[in-house]
Each structure stands twice: as structure tokens, then as C-alpha cells.
Amino acid sequence: MIRFQAVHKSYRVDGRDVSALQPFDLEIADGEVFGIIGHSGAGKSTLIRLINLLERPSGGRILVDDTDMTALPAAALRQQRQRIGMIFQHFNLLASQTVAENVAFPLRLAGESDAASMRKRVDELLARVGLTAHADKYPAQLSGGQKQRVGIARALANRPSILLCDEATSALDPQTTASVLDLLAEINRELKLTIVLITHEMDVVRRVCDRVAVLDAGTIVESGSVADVFLHPRHPTTRRFVNEALPEEAAGEQAPFAHVPGRVMRLSFRGETTWTPALGRVARETGVDFNILAGRIDRIKDLPYGQLTLAMQGARVDDALTILRQAGIEVEEIKTMSPENKS
Ligand SMILES: Nc1ncnc2c1ncn2[C@@H]1O[C@H](COP(=O)(O)OP(=O)(O)OP(=O)(O)O)[C@@H](O)[C@H]1O
């Protein structure tokens, strides 16, 4: 468990304290994938670097498995840091060392001197990230995705219980991003590692995270399960992130519904309800007409979900909504937005 208690952080700039993170509390459970999303300058890097004390907080406590990181003397902090792996946007590999040597580096730092056991561990790690055939290559000979796999193998070398990912896929193309995220999800599942990642892309959060915190100008403005935050964003910053992750026609609020007759509703289906044929049944039972304006079916991590934007007409719309809610479907009335109110 990672716990932030009344943590805040300011940087000293030109003799003045400039706040980067307002006081906040946050708990990250063992074994979860926790995302922190925010725009540039929101404080994401600062927040993630507080966990291994690459940045010291200006106040408050950071507890990792009940150890107060801020109170550790230097030697104990070094030891505690070995339990926290980290990967970076620009990989931070040693250019003059081979893939195998890069992965062996943290083992050496931790005091491993037996060449055979080091070789065995490096082989295991390279197999896990799918780079066995590239052990003797240099970073410059690898693609971005392969470099990040080396970064992941290196971060896992000392069997950490926490993996911090600092914009780990931001320098990668969408396909490579997907394969690196799949690898992180597999590591989380199989090694039961806690993963904390920062990103400015909601799609990254949707694909791998269990829970998310939204950071806006140094303040956590919203947090919760990814399904709740993604399907029902409350803060304007969160809504912008969610809409960026949706194709325009599916991002309900963007469509021009002002002229559409009837009541415009957004239906959200999660898990098994995604596949239930509720709409046809409700139409038959209540005589309500549906006009589908936008829709999508996708997954939030392993959870299938669907969202449909509908115009509903008929005398028994309220009865139809009650039946839909009873079937476990979340129903919201969309306030049609005029163009000047769009955020
Ligand atoms: N070492 C530093 N000295 C002074 N100010 C800093 C330092 N590091 C960060 N800041 C400031 O703190 C605020 C938060 O920065 P941070 O890098 O944590 O944000 P971020 O969300 O990670 O942004 P990005 O996505 O651009 O990396 C910014 O206003 C930044 O200018």
C-alpha cells in the first residue's frame, strides 16, 4: 500500500516557493494499476517521483507498506528504493552497454557479483519482455518499443513490488503503445506488482488502469475506479480527457442534438449488461421509439462496456427509463449544449 498523507510540494524558484502540488491524501492498494492523468505542468512527474523520494515533499508523509519514506536515513532509503522499479518516457538506457548489460546494471548495484546467477536472471528478464534474441545489441540498434522493454526488464531486475511508469508510452506510436501496455498488464497480473503510471492520455488509463486520479494544476480534482470516472466524468478537465479518448461521433456532447426531437439520453452498459437485448424489449413493452444518435462498445481494462446516445419519444419514456435502470443500465439525460457553451 502506498499512502500519501497531507502531502504537498513546492519548488524554490528565484527565491520564491512555487506550489507544484496542493496538499492531498491518496491511497494506492497493493496489486492495482493506478493511473495519474493530467495536462503538462499539472504535477504528475512530481507526484510519481515523491513515491521513491526522487523528489522530497515540502510537507506530509509518504508511506510505502507502512514505512515512512520521508523518515528513512540514506542507507535504508537506498534499500527501500530497490523495491520500487521505474521506467521513463525516454527509456534512460546506457548507450554504451548492451541490452543484457543494461538489464544487469541494477543487479550489480544491488551487490550481485556471481556471473552465472546474474546471467540466469538477465535471461529470465529478457524472456519475460520478449527480447531474448536482442541480448547482445546496443540500444541504438533497437526500436522505441524494444528500448522500453529493456527499461521494463531493468526495472524488474531486483524483484520490486512497485513499478513506477513516467509517461512510459508517450514516445511510442499507437501500436507499440498497445503492446507495451499489454506487457505492463501481464506483469501486473502475473507478478502481482503494484503499478503507478502517469500519462496525459485517457486511452492509456482505459486500457490498463484499475483506478485513476485526475490532476489539474497541482490538485487532484477527481479520482475513482476507471469505469466510474470514464463513464461518468464530473470535473470539466476529466470530461475533456474522456472526450479526447472517444471518436467524435461517440462523444455524445459534441454532437449537435439541439434539433433532435424527443429526450436525448445516454445509456451506459457495463459488464454483462453490455450484451443484454434490453432496448428491444423496452420498446415492445412501452411503445417508446428510439433514435440512435451515437454509440460505441469497447473495454475498460477487462470490463466490456457500451455507451449509446438515444433520442426517445413516446408517452411512456419515464417507464422505459425505469425498466432500463432495473436492468442495470445507467441512464443520464444529456443537457444539449449550445456551441458557445462547449468546453
Ligand atoms: N525542479 C523544478 N524546479 C522548479 N519547478 C519545477 C521543477 N519541477 C517541476 N516544476 C514545476 O512544477 C509544476 C509541475 O511540474 P511536473 O513536471 O510535475 O508536471 P507534469 O504534469 O509532469 O508535466 P509534464 O507532463 O510536462 O512533464 C510545473 O509548474 C513545473 O514547472
From TrEMBL:
Q: Where in the cell is it found?
A: Cell inner membrane
Any matching Pfam family: ABC_tran
UniProt keyword Ligase present: no
Q: GO molecular function: any one? A: ATP binding
> Membrane topology for this entry?
Peripheral membrane protein
Swiss-Prot/TrEMBL keywords: Amino-acid transport, ATP-binding, Cell membrane, Membrane, Nucleotide-binding, Translocase, Transport
Tell me which residues make up the ABC transporter domain.
Answer: 2-242
Q: What is its main location?
A: membrane
The keyword Transmembrane belongs to this UniProt entry's keyword annotation: no
- Show the InterPro entries listed in the entry: AAA+_ATPase, ABC_transporter-like_ATP-bd, ABC_transporter-like_CS, ACT-like_dom_sf, MetN_ABC, MetN_ABC_transporter-like, NIL_domain, P-loop_NTPase
Q: What is this protein called?
A: Methionine ABC transporter ATP-binding protein
